[in-house]
Request: fold
Amino acid sequence: MQRRVLIGSLVLLLLLTGLAAAEWESYKALYSAGEYQQLATMCQGQEDAIDADAGAHIIYKYCGMAHLRQYEKTKQGVDLTYAVKYLENSIAFSYSEEASFNLGVARMQALDHLSDGADMAQREYDALNEMWEAMRNLHAQENFARETLSDNLLIWSRDFRDEVIERVLKSEDAPGRARLLAAYLRMLADRFELVDPTKADSEVRQSNLKLFKDWMTELHELSYFDNNPVVGMYKYKANRHREKYDQSEKTEADFTKALHFYNEALKRVRTNKARAVLNADVAYLCSLYNSKDNEKLVSYYKIGFTNAYEGLNVMAKINQAKADSRREEYPYEMDSSELIAQLQKSYGSNLTGLEYFHHLRKDHRSVVSLKEFVFNSGFNWEGKETTFLLIADAADKLASNARRNRRAFDNYKEICLFASTRAFKATLQKHGGRAPVNDAEFCRVYQNHVNYLRRFGEAIEARELTLRYDPVCQAAAAE
Reply:
């Protein structure tokens, strides 16, 4: 209420006494209060008086920025026209980094309202330079290595980054322009190499600076990704949305956007290594998905597993041809061993999730249909023993329903015993081949395996295991 009264008083004062009584502080107050529409309207009606005021350059700056903020709300091109006009007037009176940066933003956004022409590239270049020069001037006033950076520099760096990224994506059919724009991103990112977050004056500020520096390091590296900045910037945007996804319903839109941008990158990727990296990104993202909707869970686990599987196949081809010097590379390639480990982890995570929800829906055939991807994987992951047991249980139930079909029964019996044996041996191997003491998980896997052996007439083997491991598990149960 107090804020509205203050704003109302300022407006009334301007209307009744004219510009001279208000001076530039009143315009700043309206801008700071977020009353952009009122300020924009006043500026259009006071241009002659503003020109005669000693603080005209400051007033025009706030007039221009008010119209720019209005455009961000309404997307009306006329606001951009006024924003450019007033900000140019501001700089004509006296140079200001803030006016210059916002003029560059307004000019960049105005390009979206123009049809393509011979001077479009030059207009884009001029707008970028307006923003860039403002940031360079501000940068000259700050020491990256010794001082905490100003909020303005961080905000402008973020906005400049986002604006240039969008321009890169729109330059897909003009690779020369895309590479020029990527050079701006590299120059921007390079500036943050000297930043030392530990020198900030609070833990919150330290954390924010570290995150910002990490973003800039990644931005620099991804500008080279796949030797194509367009692909790299799709990945960069996807990574930022993935960061925001916290597995809650309120951030599901960020999950969807991240998946969309990764897929856009995959549509355009050219090198095998970059393709495998993007497969790993999609697979990992899908392994994070959380929802009460089991159908959506199954769908995304399937997508994640498919991408992990494809990524591992790509890496296998790369490794087979690693002696071939003709393989196309790009700077800052991810380490192959680390990439394969990520793909394997996501492969297992998504496959286990997929098997679990098929089992939950009592879709036993779908559980068993994926057995070869588990049996022939050749590597381990957390929860692999559980995946073996899900297959064993599904095969057991299918065998029970196929007793009149001897061939089908024997097939499911073989699958069940093979899966339960693999689960038991994998669990035993985790403990060096010896039964662990007081380990409920080992005893659960062991007991399931023995039950399947007995059920399918393998009494001798079941008896041998019982004599060896029953005492350990009975002791654990007694405690």
User: Anything to note?
Assistant: Confidence is low (pLDDT under 50) at residues 1-22.
